[in-house]
Design goal:
Length: about 280
Amino acid sequence: MSKKSSLGRGLDALLGKPAESAPAMVQTLKVEKIVQAAYQPRQVFTPESLAELAQSIRDKGVLQPLLVRPRDDHFEIVAGERRWRASQLAGLTELPVIIRDLGDREALEIAIVENLQREDLGALEEARAYQALMEQGLNQEGVAQAVGKSRSAVSNALRLLTLPAPALRALDDGQISAGHARAILAQPDGDRAWALEQITARSLSVREAEALKREKREPTPIKVNPPRAFRQVELDLSRRTGTRVRITGEDKGRVELNYASREELDRILEILGYAAEE
């Protein structure tokens, strides 16, 4: 099965025309009558690729019409924004188009499927496109059916939107990949910022990022020394009893006297005024 036919209902089905029917009528519109869509899922258009396409258009023209829909006194792009941008770079004043009267959700579905077929969407662009479809009333299962993906693939893509803001920026900027992002999401919430720092600072591969594990250190106990007055008492008691004395605590605590034999214990008890019953 081809990639195109495996994506959801396919563009032919979304446009409401069977594959065996006659081609849609192509019309010509002035460039200034065509505007980009606010919901365009693809946000990144690299200058290099646009320049290459513009040169191809100069040489061969626009080989595939844009799909547009009527909006007041202009026409909104549903599919073909990259061709529209490159055509303007090439100096064209008119473009071939197919005009369809489409609702918001249907137009968005077509735009997403067209970009997925071309493998043009980045990971976050794809996730945001799915989110936009859900805002049009679809659940995850409905989105999956519309774009020809599994529900788990849609769910995993949407999960990227829960990344911490610094990780979202890093993914958007290309500092990390979607694989790195998923490795970050696998970390406990409190370790995700640390994981991002490790990945970027050490240029970790996805496999290395997946193996990251933050060592949990036990807090170092704070050693509390007895007040100076108690230390003097310890010395005085040690001299009087002839053994080491330790006082712990302040308002509450304990007094410890050490002995090395039964005879030494009897001597300490006698000093303290304790006399065993005969």
